[in-house]
Amino acid sequence: MPVILVEGIGKIEFPETMSPDEIKRAIETDIIPRGSKSRQSGREEGSGIQGALTALNGLTFGFGDEVAGAAKGAYNAVTGGSFDEGYRDTRDYVRGAVEQFRKDQPILAPVADISGSLLQAPLAAGGMAARGVASAAKPVMSVLERVLAAAGIGAATGAAQGAGEAETMADVPEKAGIGAALGGALGAGASGAGAVVRGVRDQIAPRFSGAAAHDLALRRLGLALVRDEKTGEQVIRRMEKLGPEATIADAGGENARNLLDTIATLPGKTQNQVEGLIRQRQVGRAGRMDAIPDSLGGATSGDKVLQELQATKEQLSAPLYDAVNRATVLQTPKLADLAERPIIKAAIEQARTNVANRGQDAAERFVQDEMATGQTPLRFWDDVKKGLDDVIGGIKRGTSNSSGSTLRSAVDVKRELLAELDKLSIDPATGKSVYKEARDAFAGPAALQSAIEDGRSALTMSPPDIKRALDRMSVSEQEAFRLGAADAYRDKIGTRAGQTNLLNAPFDRNTRQQMSAIFDGQRGYREAMSTLLGEAELKKLERVGRGSQTAGREARMEDLNAGVLDDAANAAKSAVGGNVLGVVSAARSLGSRLGTPESVRDEIGRLLTLRGVPAQEQLQAMEAIIRSMRMGNSQAAAIQGVLGGSLINQ
Fold it and tell me: Which of these three, 118, 134, 155, is where a domain ends?
């Protein structure tokens, strides 16, 4: 039986009864047309498989043939066959299929290869985020950072795919080097093209969409807070500490305030908004600073406070003074000596007058003749002490002709008298002085009045003088002293100059020591310092939008436009040519010529001046955007780099 080799079809056997002419006619009229149709059908069926293998090759950096060969070789080894034979045959088959697909489908082949390559991008982005060192993981990337990130990924994937396309191991270094160079350049170019698109988007979209303006404003705010090294949650906590008056600009830091300062110097709604906020803050400052005197003695001042204090103290101290009225003290040489001093004699006369003014019988009340018996009613000496308070008060108010030295002498004599009476009035059952306990509860109207007057002069006293004055006072007198100091602070807070002086207190050692001496305990002092520090922080906003234009402000204005491109044609040309520096230069150039849209500026100003719950809601939304930007930057850089790297094989 004759066998004929038909080109493109293979060997065909014909019956011996057929003549050569019949065989020729059969081949030309039947076998060849039928074979052509069969080949076409086979090609169509094979193209789908070839396309899949081409995509697999892109996904595996050009190592698809080796991967398939290794899988087949392993299968052969497990089933008793030859690993080498399975590996070699399958590898060659995949290579041939990919090459044939590239020849048959010059358009679809690159699409399949690149599509497979792009599946690598999420893995690359995840790797960058996991390492935490790539600039693409930053919330907001500059053009240079994005281009370099994409170039790095492009170089890496280009090298891997170049190595995968090498026919032999000897070709790997050369192919990998060429792939790295081309992949890096094309990855950088793709990133530059992406920057062009983003720049145009940020210029156009906010002008027609409030949502786009809001999102871009949140990104700008996020960049400022990142530079202040603050998260949204940290800003929220800081606002709560500064009080209901605090805005995002107050709690954010210098970069946030600088951003508001820049926006307030440009045309838009922010200028008037900031001016209104500053005026409102200035008017309310005195009320907020009143927390300092309020902590010393309530929210009121003047004679009413003294009257209320006296009534309260007198009522609470009544049982203690009942014990004083029943007690007697031993007449000691010290008491006899004190009774002969002129200031005490004047106090005794004042005490007689006070008793008479109360409608009491001075002769019955004053049993001074009992001193000769060795015992004196303690109430007598209490009346003398109160008379001495009146004398001292008159000297302080200038209603007597006594000099300053007389005042010091009177105060010293009073201290000696009280020390002696306290020692003589100790209750054996409790070991405490009956008279001191009563005096601490209520030192008497004149003593409280004198202590309040001393407190009103406290801001002109040195810290040691304040401490000495308080040490000489009973507990009730110390309370009255602080009421007087509260009045002095209210007077000071009532003027702008006084407010400014107090706001410097945290940075002035003498003023700090003075306040520490006045306040009762360190807790009160710390709360006062916290109030002043918080108000000083709020006062910083008054500098926003004022003053001359500076180079620093101009730099911040340019920074607002860092994502907008200058010349799309130059940027595209640089990107196509793989000119990284050209892409960066073009990107920075437009930043100096185009401004942030007014709608975005207005939204930035609105966000920065938000307070309370609305501010917290926007800060939380900003955190979500920053997280999305961080992942988006990683994926964008990865996609651009992988795309650039995959193009070297097309």
Answer: 118
